């Protein structure tokens, strides 16, 4: 198969052709009457910078001349027919092709009617291209208005590539746009590169169209390091930049919006430079706005960059600013930025792209100055978030916008067009000699079958009438004048009837062909879907078999755990019985001592001769013994709870089953500073008290790191590890994980399954994924985690109720919240909005009491499943809750 690309706007034809040639397709490009530098292959292949540049002509520069063009790219001039002959009206003799075009256009109403004089201006262009370049190609692609000559010469296998022109034919009524609309209708297929243009395709009545991603070479546009920094330095640019490469066209691109946003940004910080490519119709307006707002020290103007240079600058930018007009789509800039792993800001309408991509691209959508300003702040403050967006962007490009995806989309269209053209060519004249199908056979084809049978029958009757009329005329009166008159008049009438019938027949045949193409396309799509479903079914079957095997293994493990649990339960019962016995002995001793105390008091009052000092010593000894006995009993209880916890089975020894990894929610992922500002705005009265407590707690934590609750040296941390182990599975979030590398109660659990958040820690402190923030604003999506842990953290919240609601939001249904709490039985109910005169103590705004804490958890959907009280050394509570 040999393919021709006609036209080369923005080097799209050159890029598509290069992609096809990399997969072995014989593909050529013919470019004519395009003079803009960004439409020249030198710009696509080059890696240089031209300081003095006229965007409408190729610069005479050694670096540009050094770019060698391939032999499959041809550049010619046709005297710019689009510009010079748009308004010409030329009288000429109708040719068969031009008559057919005019007749076809009249069928769609006066709005789309094409007149012969309007076609005359393009006759020489079409003939020149046909004579020199169209021969020998199986399929031709016409880009934008380059589809017109393919239609004029009657090329039977041509594909129209839309580059915004579907919008233009509705916005501007001109002869050229009407001819282009007719070319769209007559083409074998239409490739749409702008997501919003499918609505215009539907209005035009096009059925044979599909989406084609813009050509982006992910091997060129890729994340880079040192080379990008060297390129910035060679262009005289600083290390930290925002890049705006789109042309200055305020009506379409909305460039003035990001200029206003940047002006507001500079009023708060000046650690970034805005780099703007200096081209487009509104360059002077942009310069004037920059000067008016005093942005010159922080704005750098550069000329349009070749592809390879642009890729390095993009990959080194903090942010790429695209277009913010009313279209809501991206062109080439957005995908190029995503391929480089750089966040891209533009106005993006998700609904317009649902028919194009199965997954929404991870761009940063903004349509107002305030939204653009917000993304600028985030890009400068959230390096971690930028990296996450960059990784997602690159993966999305590889999955839905890569060279392989583009090649496959083009080759699918080529196969479909080639097969349809072969069938039409073989059946072009067969209907005239074939036997007329009966009504029952044609009725199975639906309304088009019935219509086709009716037209064939009508045509057959008219041909018979022609034969009868000719026979009548030949056998009629012998008077020459009368014969001539009757013959001419009858034939003129019959000719008119036959012409109308043929036009009607051709219209119906066109409709049948269009419908047939649609059915074939749907059939191909259904076949592909069926194959994919079969493959997925086989994969699911394999997964099910693996899951069954794992389930059997886990069942065996569960049986062993039940056996161990039964044994441990017996031990626990024995320990409880011993504890009850000790309690009874203690009560008896207490009663005995009380009675002895009373007797001794009576003796002191009645018998003055007895040395009262000796009796007091006896009483003190007995009291000390009682206190020691009570301490031993409390210690025995404590050891009993420890033994019970040590006998509990836990998941650490069996691993964990990991589901989909938790993802960040871009709307909730805010900086620590922004989160603190929002806390102050919600409850400003108590913030100063809270800041004092937070500072004191942080200092105390740093002074006593060995005995802190997250280290092995803390005895109760060992017990909490045992308590937590029963529930530990899947992905776990530790709220308030502290600056220790891994809290002791999570040691041994896989690092890639742990997430942490804390306001006094850094990302470099931990081997697991960490986020610097507060528990009141968790940056992850809903139902992301299997378990959430809080080790002595809840009494350090500023807004406890909001923090607990965030826990309930990110916890999966059936997931557990496990907390280690210090309980104060006399602690008043928590009220975040009540102004406090002082804090509860030096490090805590409030303390927690079960009487009001458990009902609060129930209200947000978390039910208590287990509570253990440790009375020594404090009233420590180990609590587990499950999400309904």
Automatic annotation (TrEMBL):
Residue stretches making up the Methyltransferase type domain: 733-818
Domain called Glycosyl transferase family: residue spans: 239-346
InterPro entries reported in the protein's UniProt record: Glyco_trans_1 (IPR001296), Methyltransf_11 (IPR013216), SAM-dependent_MTases_sf (IPR029063)
SUPFAM superfamilies: S-adenosyl-L-methionine-dependent methyltransferases, UDP-Glycosyltransferase/glycogen phosphorylase
Pfam families per record: Glycos_transf_1, Methyltransf_11
Keywords (A to Z) from UniProt: Membrane, Methyltransferase, Transferase, Transmembrane, Transmembrane helix
Superkingdom of origin: Bacteria
Name under which the protein is recorded: Methyltransferase domain-containing protein
Organism: Tectimicrobiota bacterium
């Amino acid at each position: 198969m040999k393919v021709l690309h006609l036209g080369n706007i923005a080097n799209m034809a050159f890029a598509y052709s290069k992609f096809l040639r990399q997969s072995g397709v014989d593909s050529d490009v013919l470019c004519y009457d395009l003079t803009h530098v960004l439409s020249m292959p030198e710009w696509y292949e080059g890696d240089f910078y031209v300081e003095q540049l006229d965007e409408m002509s190729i610069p005479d520069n050694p670096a540009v001349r050094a770019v060698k063009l391939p032999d499959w790219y041809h550049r010619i001039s046709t005297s710019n027919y689009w510009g010079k002959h748009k308004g010409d009206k030329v009288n000429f003799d109708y040719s068969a092709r031009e008559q057919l075009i005019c007749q076809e256009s009249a069928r769609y109403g006066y709005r789309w009617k094409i007149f012969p004089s309007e076609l005359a201006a393009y006759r020489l262009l079409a003939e020149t291209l046909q004579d020199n370049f169209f021969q020998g190609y199986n399929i031709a692609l016409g880009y934008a208005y380059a589809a017109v000559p393919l239609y004029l010469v009657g090329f039977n296998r041509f594909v129209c590539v839309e580059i915004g022109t579907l919008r233009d034919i509705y916005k501007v009524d001109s002869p050229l746009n009407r001819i282009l609309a007719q070319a769209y209708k007559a083409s074998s297929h239409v490739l749409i590169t702008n997501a919003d243009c499918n609505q215009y395709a539907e209005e035009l009545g096009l059925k044979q169209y599909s989406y084609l991603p813009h050509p982006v070479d992910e091997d060129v546009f890729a994340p880079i390091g040192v080379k990008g920094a060297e390129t910035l330095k060679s262009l005289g640019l600083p290390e930290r930049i925002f890049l705006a490469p789109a042309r200055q066209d305020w009506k379409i691109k909305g460039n003035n919006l990001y200029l206003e946003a940047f002006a507001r940004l500079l009023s708060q910080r000046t650690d970034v430079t805005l780099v703007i490519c200096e081209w487009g119709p509104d360059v002077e307006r942009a310069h004037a706005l920059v000067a008016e707002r005093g942005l010159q020290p922080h704005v750098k103007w550069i000329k349009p960059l070749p592809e390879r240079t642009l890729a390095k600058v993009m990959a080194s930018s903090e942010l790429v600013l695209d277009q913010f007009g009313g279209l809501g789509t991206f062109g080439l800039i957005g995908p190029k930025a995503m391929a480089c792993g750089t966040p891209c800001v533009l106005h993006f309408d998700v609904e317009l792209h649902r028919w194009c991509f199965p997954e929404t691209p991870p761009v940063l959508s903004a349509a107002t100055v305030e939204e653009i300003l917000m993304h600028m702040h985030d890009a400068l403050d959230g390096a971690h978030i930028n990296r996450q967006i960059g990784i997602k962007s690159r993966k999305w490009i590889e999955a839905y916008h890569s060279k392989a995806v583009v090649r496959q989309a083009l080759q699918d269209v080529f196969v479909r067009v080639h097969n349809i053209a072969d069938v039409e060519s073989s059946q072009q004249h067969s209907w005239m000699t074939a036997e007329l199908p009966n009504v029952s056979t044609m009725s199975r084809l639906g309304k088009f079958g019935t219509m086709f049978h009716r037209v064939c029958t009508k045509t057959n009757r008219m041909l018979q009438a022609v034969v009868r009329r000719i026979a009548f005329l030949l056998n009629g009166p012998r008077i020459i004048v009368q014969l001539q008159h009757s013959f001419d008049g009858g034939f003129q009438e019959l000719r008119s009837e036959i012409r109308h019938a043929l036009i009607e027949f051709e219209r119906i045949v066109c409709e049948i062909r269009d419908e047939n193409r649609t059915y074939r396309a749907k059939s191909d799509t259904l076949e592909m879907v069926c194959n994919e479903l079969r493959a997925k079914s086989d994969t699911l079957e394999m997964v099910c078999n693996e899951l069954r095997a794992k389930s059997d293994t886990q069942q065996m493990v569960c049986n062993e755990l039940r056996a161990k649990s039964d044994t441990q339960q017996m031990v626990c019962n024995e320990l409880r019985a011993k504890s009850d016995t000790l309690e009874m002995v203690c009560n008896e001793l207490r009663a005995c001592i009380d009675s002895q105390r009373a007797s001794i008091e009576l003796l002191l009052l009645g018998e003055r001769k007895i040395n009262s000092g000796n009796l007091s010593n006896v009483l003190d000894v007995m009291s000390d013994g009682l206190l020691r006995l009570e301490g031993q009993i409390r210690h025995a209880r404590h050891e009993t709870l420890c033994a019970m916890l040590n006998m509990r089975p836990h998941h650490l020894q069996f691993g964990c089953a990991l589901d989909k990894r938790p993802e960040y929610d871009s709307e909730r992922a805010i900086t620590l500073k922004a989160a603190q500002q929002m806390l102050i705005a919600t409850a400003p009265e108590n913030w100063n008290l809270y800041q004092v407590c937070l500072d004191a707690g942080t200092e105390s934590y740093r002074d006593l790191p060995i005995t802190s609750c997250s280290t092995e040296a803390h005895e109760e941390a060992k017990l909490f590890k045992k308590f937590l182990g029963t529930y530990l599975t899947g992905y776990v979030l530790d709220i308030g994980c502290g600056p220790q590398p891994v809290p002791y109660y999570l040691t041994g659990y896989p690092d890639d399954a742990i997430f942490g958040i804390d306001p006094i820690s850094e990302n470099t402190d931990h081997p697991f994924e960490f986020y610097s923030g507060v528990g009141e604003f968790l940056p992850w999506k809903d139902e992301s985690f299997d378990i959430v842990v809080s080790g002595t953290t809840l009494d350090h919240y500023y807004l406890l109720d909001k923090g607990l609601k965030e826990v309930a939001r990110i916890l999966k249904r059936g997931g557990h919240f496990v907390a280690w709490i210090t309980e104060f039985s006399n602690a008043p109910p928590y009220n975040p909005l009540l102004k406090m005169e002082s804090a509860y103590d030096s490090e805590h705004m409030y303390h927690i009491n079960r009487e009001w804490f458990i009902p609060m958890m129930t209200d947000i959907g978390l039910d208590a499943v287990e509570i253990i009280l440790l009375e020594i050394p404090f009233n420590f509570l180990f609590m587990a809750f499950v999400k309904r």
